[in-house]
Amino acid sequence: MQYSEKVMDHFMNPRNVGEIENADGVGMVGNAKCGDIMKMYLKIEDDVIVDCKFKTFGCGAAIATSSMATELIKGKTIEEALALTNSAVVEALEGLPAVKVHCSVLAEEAVKSALADYYKKIGRPIDFEIESDEHEDEE
Amino acid sequence: MKRFVYADNAATTPVSREVIEAMAPVFSEQWGNPSSLHAKGREAKELLDGARERIAKVFSCSANEIYFTSCGSESDNWAIRGAVKRLAKKGRNHIVTSAIEHPAVLNTCRDLEKEGYPVTYVGVDSDGIVKMDELEAAITDKTAVVAIMFANNEVGTIQPIEEIGKLAHAKGALMFTDAVQAIGNIDIDLSKLPVDMLALSGHKIHAPKGIGMLYIKKGVVIDNLISGGGQERRKRAGTENLPYIVGLAKALEVASAKIPELDRVVKMRDRLIEGLEKVPFSKLNGHRTQRLAGNVNIGFEFIEGESMLLWLDISGICASTGSACSSASLEASHVLLAMGVPHEKAHGSVRLSITHETTEEDIDYILETLPPIIEKLRNMSPLWEEIVKGNQN
Question: Is the full-model pTM beyond 0.90?
Fold first, then answer.
């Protein structure tokens, strides 16, 4: 199994690692049993994601996809962030080994889960699905 | 300063200079087919017999109890399939094995189960030692073969093979052991050990990949796995891989002569274990003393093994992990799970396997390099965050 240079770059130098105090939206997806947990923090102003941080427990691909997902949504509108797909994350990373594609699905879900948390906080009805259709069967 | 440290010797080892030198003339000079009647054939046959004799000496067995195969997996397949298929004709169709065997044994058993042969998978304790009461209860007068590994490849736990062999024999079953990891670590005396079949492979002890061996005790008859010509006394067809057989004989002689020097490896192993156990939320996997000389397997909580391995690799250290994320199957180590290690902890395990070639400086380098990697990964782990916050509250 070989990771692309881009994946290794995001693994070794992950962007936006950390927490945001009093974040407007926090989402955590995955579970320790499967070996991947992603936690995403969002700071939102006027429906724009002005800051975004993450913490991830997981393999190289899990860390790289989290890092890339934060890069892809930072500075974007909520609408644009909701349109982020796992394949866009894979593409931006210049590919992922087939067995690791589920990590990108998790990254997409982490973003949506954090946005759902924000919607809940401000009382906006959640009009999107958190769980991706592409989600693998997990125990 | 960055070094290169190969700490994955349980996966494979480089072929040693002396083995290469022993093999070289067999490729280019003594290249004959041992089955040929002419001079080149006779020359090859002599080498083949000589290699067999030398290996027999290493294990205190007889040369005609040694059968060369292509690898450890072939030997495992042959021993178990051959035994159960032969003995089923006499009403013994049952196999007893353990939950922590190598996939070459476990998957052979699963395949045989599909063919209708019942299999009992005996559990292990938290150190990875086979539960003897469970084992004893599992063996019946229907059991053809008891297949228990000599030492585990992941956690290095050494099984009480003598006791297990006695239990098998008490019920009239054959005793088979996969000794792939044990050779070169444990002095195996087959004139005394109650073992009917023993499998081994060359590449774990500085012989090439692609050569294995099955010992079958005199008087024990099992079905053949590979049909064809009359090689290996009509038990295993295929032109003998003479250069590799000569290499295996050399490697076994060298490895067995170095067993008394293992104390030095054990000291390095224990220094590595002690140093890594200083990391908070870490735990040694496997038995502390009943353990292969070169095996270190430690679990670090709140992080995942593949990330650890990638960082080690970047730092020049080759290691291995029981994490699901590093395997094609995405399954966590069956060995750690059988020992009762929960999934989330199995993911954070790392195996470092050292040898005579390892130096004290290598150990220093691992001890300098690994703890900061763990810290770095924990600092970005949401699970670690919970622990840190929990402590603050």
Answer: yes
